[in-house]
Amino acid sequence: MAEAPNILLITADQWRGDCLGPAGHPVLRTPAIDDLSARGVTFARHYAQAAPCSPGRASLYTGLYQMNHRVLRNGTPLDARHDNIALALQRRGYEPRLFGYTDQSIDPRTTTPDDPRLNSYEGVLPGFTAEAKLTEDNKPWFDWMTARGHDLPEDPWALFLPPEGRPRFPTTAPPRFSQDETETAFLTDAFVDWLSEQPKDGPWCAHVSFLRPHPPFVVPEPFNTLYDPASGPAFRRAVDPATEAAQHPYLAYWLDQAKAAGFCFVEDGESLLTDWPEEAFRNVRATYWGMISEVDRQIGRLTAALQARGAWDDTIIVLTSDHGEMMGDHWTLGKFGYFDQAYHIPLIVRDPRHPEGFGGRVSDFTEAVDVMPTLVELSGASRDGPADGRSLSPFVHGERPVDWRREAHWEFDFREVTGGGAQGALGLELDDCSLAVIRDERYKYVHFTGLPPLLFDLQEDPDELRNLADDADYLAPRLAMAEKLLAWRSRYLDRRLTGIALTPDGPLEARR
């Protein structure tokens, strides 16, 4: 391997941590990911730090918890003072390239009021140069489809509809494009073309940021029929939506406003997910699994291109996601709140210099904030400022640190800056609309700023259906988990200057 390795960071958006072969999924098949797992290290209990996309990615890219980077929603600016993985690798001598998107909004204090980047949350993370950008309006992909000879309809989004039009409820019908013409294939083609032009001795750095399996939930043949909607485990949810909603005021609010249009193309986009029949949820889930298999196919193309180029043994690969997906559990879809399904995500790391770790499966709790310091260390780069995560390099080497964390943490901010819907419905002020979660092997505690807390005994209630926060028999574990959460926040609050003392001999910095 060259002195500085190539870096390939792959993300697939909205990807549940239990939905891949190495996780032992009973139905889903992911041969390319299985192969990567066998030649890398799989982190089985890896968690995102925040949702939706912009907050989750801010933690992934900066190595900071949400309480420090403060990207709360899509469109919250990322403070320019924070270091990130692209800038760190740039200082190492790389020229980081982006294929896809990063959804990091520019800090308005760093530019002029007429900067067009202030009109969108889809900014490119500082340090990356976009080789192939995918925007929310899908225009780059639509243009690519036109160049391939497609006569696009007046509304190009109609490409996602079956020939017979919008169904009443979700089906597994395919869209009007092939498996070689997905947004995933578009980005893969762009990376493969770019890779062919890179010097064989490197080093290079690329971030391939796939959109799928993010909604809309639709996938082309043959993936739309790859999985039987009747197969798979039962959904994890209460007996009916009303019983589910009774668990907590915020959950009731979410269920009351989660509409079909946010996820699928159906006749009545204003219909609530809670009004769907069982068959609709199963069709969506089978489609979601098909979307993951479609992404798996393109990941196989990425790894094949590395091998054909002679770069396989010179390239560190990180495969992960920004957040998870509810996928019918608790009567809903999407990413929100506190349930594990929205935050448990995949992580596979392959460093070809350390075959002793190949095939390893880590059951310790790891977090999205660990990715940035891991890539910094493995590449020989350095950080400019603190990171809340820890390098996973010992696990990659086949070792386990004796002092590793015993809990996972995440945060969710549900303020609605422009419309104020959550504040009005729940009777909260803007800054009261947040929660923080700590979960260990047995208990999960959810602390709301302006609403009652939640406590789950995951040993007795793995589906998170019984809130024990007010149960006198669980007062001790509730207090213990609340104290751990408070200690975690106190430990990791912004530490940028806190380890420096000004002395007669000048600034002295403590070793962390």
Q: Describe it for me?
A:
One of its GO terms (molecular function) is metal ion binding. One of its GO terms (cellular component) is cytoplasm. Residues 100-119 are annotated as: Disordered. This protein has 512 residues and is of the alpha/beta class. It has a single domain (6-492), classed as 3-Layer(aba) Sandwich (Alkaline Phosphatase, subunit A), CATH 3.40.720.10. Helix content is 26%, strand content 15%. It contains 13 helices and 15 strands. The protein has helices at residues 31-38, 53-62, 66-69, 85-91, 139-147, 183-195, 241-245, 249-257, 278-309, 371-379, 393-396, 421-426, 475-492; strands at 6-12, 41-47, 97-100, 129-133, 205-210, 315-320, 344-345, 347-350, 360-367, 408-413, 434-439, 443-448, 454-457, 500-503, 506-509. The chain starts with 5 loop residues before the first strand and ends with a strand. The model has no long low-confidence stretch (mean pLDDT 96).
Fold blueprint:
Elements lengths: L5 E7 L18 H8 L2 E7 L5 H10 L3 H4 L15 H7 L5 E4 L28 E5 L5 H9 L35 H13 L9 E6 L30 H5 L3 H9 L20 H32 L5 E6 L23 E2 L1 E4 L9 E8 L3 H9 L13 H4 L11 E6 L7 H6 L7 E6 L3 E6 L5 E4 L17 H18 L7 E4 L2 E4 L3
Parallel strand pairs: 1-5, 1-6, 2-9, 3-4, 3-5
Antiparallel strand pairs: 2-7, 2-8, 6-8, 10-11, 11-12, 12-13, 14-15
Helix pairs in contact: 1-9, 6-9
